[in-house]
Structures are given as C-alpha cells and as structure tokens.
Batch of 4 targets.
Target 1
Amino acid sequence: MNISLIISFLLEQRVLTSIIQISSQLTTMTWGITSWSARLDVLGVYLVSILQVTANPLRVAGTVASFALFLTVTGHIAARNVLGDVPIRNAFVVGAVPALIAVLVTTFNINSFIGLAAAIVFDWAVIRTLYEQSDAMSAYVTLIHFVVSVILAAVLFGVLALIGSLPGWCSDIFESLR
C-alpha cells in the first residue's frame, strides 16, 4: 500500500493528530518535572564520559580515511557494474557517508545493528541523490555495494591473516602494530 494513502487516511481520521497531541503533552509534562540545570549537568557529564578518547586522534583519522577509501572503491565497483560508466567523484561521497556513520556509532556506543541499518539507509539516499536513479534502482545499487563490501572485506581479512601467520619478519611487523 502506498505510504501517502496511509498518511492521508490517518489525517482524515484525525488519528495522527491525536497521537501527536498526546505525545506533545507527555513531553511537556516530562520536561516540566526536572529543572533545566539538572538536565544540562546530566547531559554534560554523559557527553564528557562518552567522548573521552584514549586512542591517538591521528590513528582514528587514518582508520576513518582508509575505511572511507575502501567504501569508495566498493561503491564505485557497485555503481559501475549496475549503472555502467559513472563518474568516480560520486563514489567519494558514497564511501564517506557510511564511514562517518560507523565513527558516530562507535563513538556514542550505539548498537551496531542500528548503525548498520542507518548506514544502509543513508547509503541508499546518497546513491539515489548523486546518481539520480529511481528508488528501486538505488536499492539495487545499495545491495550490490553491501555485497561487494562484505566479499572484498572477507578476502582482504583472509589475506592479512595469512600474511600475519607467516613465520619470520612478517609476523614481527604485525605484532609491533598491536
């Protein structure tokens, strides 16, 4: 069923407006119970406790950049296989958005399944906007982007695990990186 028909039906029945009114009244009552200073103090303590980073910021930036580059390559592969000849500059945006979502999910300790769903939805929206495709075609490109990313990540992880298990100097290099 079409979403616009459902919304128009709910508006005609005034169900949606009564839900919104009840929700706003509950929100007003909840916010009225606590004082502003207590809420700001709790929010400040929460943000400071979450955002305390013990990792080197340069390593974090390098990880984000390499992940964005990886997603850029897989996004361009997916778009090129589905849509044909496409400009590579669009892939840089397609790769950066899920990488930034991954950083936000990790920073704020959000459930990884919620982060994955958000990354896929935003990936779809960016692909739909940049490549100017229909919803179904954008969903197909997003699916191919997800599949290519998972397959290529599994292959790269396997290669790095094999290199890391080699006896000699290679294993010493990987041990020093830990």
Target 2
Amino acid sequence: MKVDLRMRNSSFKKTTKYYHLNFDFQTHPLFRQLDWIYVQKKFQNVISSFPVQVHSLIMMDTHIHILISSEEKNENFFCERFKSEMKSPGKNECFCEPITDYSQFLNTYKYLYRNSVEAGLSQTVEDYPYSSLRIILGRSVGYVQIDDPIGLIQNPIQTLNWLNSDCDFKISQLSFLRQDNSLSM
C-alpha cells in the first residue's frame, strides 16, 4: 500500500519535541457530546498559554489521547495545567510519552485514531464522533485548533485507508510511508 503523506521522514523536526499525552477522564454516558465540547474548550484554554501545536485529540470513555509538539520542553507544565483546568473527579493522572523519531510519530498517530475502532466503538476511524479527525475532515465543529502534519485533507482517501488498515504498527510496516520530500511539517 503506497500512501503519499505530507509529513516526511526528512521533515520530522529534531528541534521540535513531540509528545503523546494520555489523560484520565471519565465521560458521562448520557452527556458524551457535552463532555467532548467541554474537553475541547478546556484544552484550547490551556494551549493558548503554551507554545504547542495539537496534532490529534481523541476522547475515549475513560481517558483522552493527545498528540502535541512544541519547540520548548514544557510537557510537564502543560500536563499540570491541563489537569488543573479539567477539575474532573478521580486520579487525574497524565502520562506523557516522548516521541523521538518519525516512525514512532506515525505509529502514535495511527494508534490514537484507531483506538476507537480497536475498542469496538466505531467501524472506521472517521466515524468516531469524539476525535479531531472529524474536525479535520469538516464533519464536526471544532473548539480546538488542530494542526495535521500528515496532510489528511490533501489526500483523504489514501490516508483514511492507511488509518483504517489493520496492519501491525512495527517500523518495518511503515517503510511505504518513508518517501523523502522537501515539504515540512
């Protein structure tokens, strides 16, 4: 499968820090749509105070996945601010995984959007209503600014086919995505 993505191995900026954040958050079964709006607005409040770019945001039933990048190493302050902004009951733990290379970025990007499919909450990645993917595709109103370095909107069919494919997330499986190009993130 050949996929033409905007972000290339050569454009993965080594000076930029990338992070996958996993934040505990319990949704209410009757008010998930309101929870989704709440999460986006609170998140937008936080990112307005930090020099970060949001690449994906997904709300599951018990947690939130966030993929961000920043020129500064401020992920711990960012997590603490987000936790205090959310004020949700429970542990409110925030796990932060640094992303160190292009393959790991692609693995994480795909993992986050496939999370709802793997959990049986949707048939396809684009059908899950609590995902920034729907905002990028124009299928949902967004309350948070999303920067998509993959270039989904430029080539939606191929990118969605890749996201919906049930291939292994190993680096060897990503060789078809490694095409050098001068386009940057």
Target 3
Amino acid sequence: MRLLLSIILAGTAMFSACKTSNEAASLRDASVEAGGKGGECNYSIYPPKACKEGFHCVTPEGVYGAPGTCEPDSGDLGAECNYSIYPPKACQEGLTCVTPPGVSGAPGTCQDTGAKEGGECNYSIYPAKACKRGLTCVTPPGVYGAAGKCQKPAGGEGSECNYSIYPPKACQEGLVCKTPPGVYGASGKCTRE
C-alpha cells in the first residue's frame, strides 16, 4: 500500500512539473511575435510557419526540415551580402548584391544599381534590369517578358488619380484623391488625409 501511494505521489509531482514546464514554454512563446524577431519558422511543413516581411528563417546547419528562428534581414544599403552560403546573406528588396568580378562565391555589398524613373527595366532576363528602390517596373499589358519603364508605384503619394475613368487610377490605402473643385471627371493627386 505504501509503495502504491509513493507511485501515485511521484506521478502527480511529475505531472505538475510537466504542466508548469509547458505553461512556462507557452508564456515564453507568447512573448515572441509570430513571424517576427525570434519567432519560430519552418518552410518544410504544411502550412508553413513563415517569417514576416523583412525577416528570414535561420535553421540549424545540416538539419533538414528542422524549425528555425526568424531573424531580421540585414541586407540594407552597403551591407555585406552573399548568396552562395547557407543561410544566404540577402539584400533587401530593391537592392542588388554586387560581387567582385570573376570571384565565384565571394561576398559583395548591397547596392542600389536599378534604373531611375523612366529608365528601362526587365525582370524576365538574367541578369535582371531592376528599378531603383521605391520604383515599380511597369510593362505593357499582355506582353510577357517585355521590357518596361521604371515608375513610381501606382496610387502612391503625389501620383495622378481619377475614379471617373475605366479602369480607375486609384490611390493606395490611406491616401485620398484630391481633384480641382467644381471640375467633374478631372484627374487629381493622391494625398494624405
């Protein structure tokens, strides 16, 4: 009887220790924003646990399928970059990793080598002809692979807008189309409220 009572008490102690450990883990996980810095990520499961924009997933080296940790992208203008290592040191969107010519696998620096507003762009060729940061490559509709022109994103602050034409030239969320007073159907400019 004494042995049975000891086993029951030991089992209860183990259960409460596990419960306390699980509660601590869940409190620790709640303090880390999902997909943000320090958040868990895993692209080898379905649905994948992805990192938020501006973060990338760092996994243990050589452990395929293992979960990783979301770390901020460090590839800002002038930062070191290298796509030939794992995990890669990537540049932020709109920047290009420029490496020394003729040195395979060498690190480079993140640079804004894109075309200026009105310049030619084409993402369907290699190497891509990109636009500078903050510009969008606008290609002719229905002509796949065609070169385009670098323009400010449609509907951005200061862009032309007109809701009385089809298709409408709309403003991005958080902006309003200010038109000349009393001129119906006229184009306006996207401005902050």
Target 4
Amino acid sequence: MDFRRLILKIIVASLAIYPLSLPVSAQAELADRNKPMTLDADKLTVNDIQKISTYEGHVVLNQGTMQIKADRLVITQNGKVRTAIAYGNPVTFHELLDNNQGMLKGQAQEARYNTESRVLELIGDARLTRNKDLIEGNTITYNIGSTIFKVNGGGSGGRVHAIFQPQAKSHAGQGGQ
C-alpha cells in the first residue's frame, strides 16, 4: 500500500463522524461502515436553529474497529454542507485496515472536515502511523476528491518527519531461497 493510500485510509477512519458523506470504496475497514455508531460524552448541547451539535467531555466515538477520542466535537450543518471539528489534547483515532494491512493510528490537537470541499485538516502536532510507518508535521491537509495531501513542518525544527519501513520481499521466483 503506498503512503497516499495510507493517508486516505487514516483520514477516512478519522471522519467516521460522517460516514454517509464518503464513498464506500474509501473506507478503511469496509465492514465498519455497516456497524452501529455510538457516541458518548459528558455533555451534549444541540442548537436546532443554528444546526450545531456540541459533544463535550471525554468524547468517544466508536464504529466497528474505529475509535475517535476528543475533548470536544462540534458538528455544524448548513444545508447539505456539514462540518465536523474535533478538539483534544490530543484528538486520537485508530482503526484496523482491510486486508490485514495493520492498525491505523493518528492524532492532532484539532481535526476539521468539510463535506462540501471534502478536505480534512489535522492541525497541531499532527501524527499518522500505520504499523511502523510514520509521518509527522504541524498540519496535515488532505483533499479526498483530488487525493492530494500536504504536510507542513512544525515542532522545534519546523520540518516534516517521516519513517517508511521497507516492503517485505516476495519469495516467488526465488526457487525457495
């Protein structure tokens, strides 16, 4: 799996808040989409007039193998456009990937998603991992429609940091060696 596909799967996993807004083919664990979603928090405030729902305090969203934890989650709807913003110290998420690709994990101080632009932003100490592969930066922005992602440096050095493990070699055609 190339890193761009990894990023897509991480992002989709982190956005299970709006599973109906994403194409089925982009789901990290396809079976998760058909499982019930639970959302727990210490407090829920709903403003029907402004179409804003705010979950606060130990927010935990579960759907299948996917889990998101945040201090606060704000969901806004303006017509067909939905925006979800998760805040935490940090916001964390994890999910099993399809086809035994391992565990997907991520974190940031803030995660924002807009269903119209289909852009996800991980802001503040953003970190994504799959097994032992890693990418870190101050912000990670991903456009699901164009499949373009951008990582901006941060931290003390102001740089992007990435670690990619070598691909396992295939034993086919090696005469059993």
